[in-house]
């Protein structure tokens, strides 16, 4: 499915394909919401909580990688909490020095390609591997998909608010 501002509507009962389409849609929406912001605007916070658009973008890259690669597949992932200060999952988000929006958007779409491979290569009722993110009682791939979708939906909404405060732009 091409990246689009149009919400996906597949006329199919293929739930995995619907997950793929919606995740692609949200990745594209997040990237669009950051278009035309200057480096200064990307690195500045306009919200009381203090996060910046670039910090939110790095969070989404790490979040998807944590859930699908480290979580579901059980892969060894370097610095899974690298979007948080000192790798503490309860600490605020941060962006490594020298990281650019373009590099993060590319990483977001690279993670998307990996996620598509997971969703096309595994049944949705399969449980995540033990030994990566999960020591016991791993969730199903369906649960992980819903969790990641709600992360994207919530944070895309956060970007709508931040963008409106930065330059009056309205989300689509």
Provide an overview of this structure.
With 172 residues, the protein is mainly alpha-helical. The chain has one domain (18-167): Four Helix Bundle (Hemerythrin (Met), subunit A). Helix content is 53%, strand content 0%. It has helices spanning 15-34, 39-42, 53-72, 101-121, 141-167. The model has no long low-confidence stretch (mean pLDDT 92).
Show the helix and strand layout:
Elements (H helix, E strand, L loop, with lengths): L14 H20 L4 H4 L10 H20 L28 H21 L19 H27 L5
Rough shape? globular
- For the termini, the CA-CA separation is 18 Å
Radius of gyration: 16 Å
Q: Mean pLDDT, as a whole number?
A: 92
Largest sheet: none
For the secondary structure, the number of strands is 0
User: What structural class do you assign from the helix and strand content?
Assistant: mainly alpha
Give the tally of structural domains: 1
- Write the CATH architecture name: Up-down Bundle
Low-confidence stretches: none
Question: In DSSP terms, counting alpha (H) and pi (I) runs of 4 or more, how many helices?
Answer: 5
Pfam family, one: MST
Protein name: DinB superfamily protein
InterPro entries: DinB/YfiT-like (IPR034660), MST-like (IPR007061)
Organism: Isoptericola dokdonensis DS-3
